[in-house]
Design a protein that fits this description.
Keywords: Coiled coil, Signal
Number of helices: 2
Structural class: mainly alpha
Signal peptide: 1-19
Helix content: over 70%
Coiled coil: 29-144
Distance between the termini: 213 Å
C-alpha cells in the first residue's frame, strides 16, 4: 500500500507538473496570440501608412511633373527672351553706328538743298530780269516798227495797240 500510495502520490505530482506545464503553455500561447494580433494590427497600420505615403508620393510626382513642364517652358521662354534681347541690342548697336553716318548724310543733303534753293532763287531772279529785258526789247522794237506802220489799217493798229485810227 505504501507503494500504491507512493505511486498515486507520484502520479498526482506528475499530473500536477503536467497541469502546471499545460497551464503555463496555454498562457504562453495566449500571450503569443495577443502579441501576434497586436503585431498584425501594427503591420496593417504600417501597410496603410505605406499606401498613404505611396499615394502622397504619386500625387507629389504628378505635381512635380507639371512643375517640371512649367519650368522647361519658362526656361525656353527665358532663352527666347534672351535671344530677342541680344538681337535688340545688336540692332541698337547697328543703329547707333549708322546714326552718325545718316546724320552726316542728312546734313549734307540739307546743305545741298539749301544751296539748290539759293541757286534756284538766284536763277529765278536772273530769269525774271532776262524776261523783263526781253519784254522791254520787244516793246522797244514794237515802238520802232510802229513808227513805220500805217495806222490807218486795222492790222497796223493791232500791232501797235492803237484803238482808233488817226484822222
Amino acid at each position: 500500500m505504501r507503494a500504491l500510495s507512493m505511486l498515486v502520490l507520484f502520479c498526482l505530482g506528475v499530473m500536477a507538473v503536467l497541469a502546471y506545464h499545460a497551464i503555463r503553455q496555454e498562457l504562453s500561447v495566449r500571450d503569443i496570440k495577443d502579441r501576434i494580433e497586436k503585431a498584425t494590427k501594427q503591420v496593417r497600420r504600417d501597410e496603410d501608412a505605406i499606401i498613404q505615403a505611396k499615394l502622397k508620393s504619386q500625387e507629389i510626382n504628378g505635381i512635380l511633373s507639371s512643375l517640371n513642364a512649367k519650368k522647361a517652358e519658362l526656361t525656353k521662354k527665358k532663352q527666347d527672351i534672351s535671344a530677342a534681347e541680344s538681337q535688340v541690342l545688336k540692332n541698337l548697336e547697328d543703329c547707333q553706328f549708322a546714326k552718325p553716318v545718316a546724320e552726316s548724310k542728312m546734313t549734307t543733303g540739307y546743305e545741298s538743298l539749301q544751296n539748290l534753293k539759293a541757286q534756284q532763287v538766284s536763277d529765278k531772279a536772273k530769269a525774271e530780269q532776262e524776261v523783263k529785258d526781253l519784254k522791254q526789247q520787244i516793246v522797244d522794237k514794237n515802238k520802232m516798227i510802229c513808227g513805220f506802220v500805217d495806222m490807218t489799217q486795222e492790222e497796223g493798229r493791232k500791232l501797235c495797240e492803237v484803238a482808233e485810227a488817226p484822222k
